[in-house]
Amino acid sequence: MTNLPPITVSTVDLERLYRVLDDAPESVYATAVALENELARAQVVDPEDMPPDVVTMRSIVRFQIIPGGREFELTLCYPDEMDNNPHKVSVLAPVGAAILGLSAGQEIDWPAPGGGQVKVVVLGVTWQPERAGMIRL
Asked: Closest Cα partner for 9 from 134, 113, 99?
């Protein structure tokens, strides 16, 4: 991954995500390593200082995957919050790790699940817990 865009993560998300990484199963090793690398380079801010257009944990985000150009609107979740809801994506899924910390309009090249690379473009943050006063561990 070259030309990485800047990312922003809240102190609350950072703390919990490091705990998630400690417990990550072997089956998501590659994504966990990529996520850990992203966290290491992130600008870290207090939740109340989070810009409203940044993808945080539990945000609802609109994004596009190229090639294909298909658009999605999903909630970025911790692994233990995943259920059968098709409108959620785990931060330990490749696209979930890719969008964390990006702002609307940013894009990142990211490893595709079957190999190769895809470009993930954040179109907007529909809802963010920091703005709704719903920050919780």
From this structure: 99
pLDDT tens for 82-103 read 999 999 999 999 999 999 999 9
CB 24 within 8 A of CB 32: yes
- 116 in Cβ contact with 103 (< 8 Å): no
Distance from C-alpha of 116 to C-alpha of 111, rounded to nearest angstrom: 6
Which fold, 8-131?
Chitinase A; domain 3 (3.10.50)
CA dist 62 and 21 (Å) reads: 25
Amino acid letter, 32? A
Q: Which two tokens stand for residue 77?
A: 């979740």
